[in-house]
Amino acid sequence: MPQSLEEYKAHRKALKAQIKETRALLEQLEAELEEERLEMGHEELDHLEEYMDKTGPHLGDLKTLGSAAISDFRKSVNDFASWVSGSKKK
Question: Which positions are tagged coiled coil (predicted)?
Fold first, then answer.
């Protein structure tokens, strides 16, 4: 279907306008997506800070428990070593 030069130029101009509009929309959507990604990152960070605030007291308990367990283990090892060395002397 042959087109006149004027029709071709008008069609080309319309396509260029549509491409320009599409690019503008794409840039807008990319900006919105970036804003949403940043907002979600801030929300996640807030959630992690809240979680750390809640677990803070329990971390102290965990440290105390770990220290007590290590101390008990050392005592048991020393008692066992004493028992082994005592049984060798007999």
Answer: 5-46
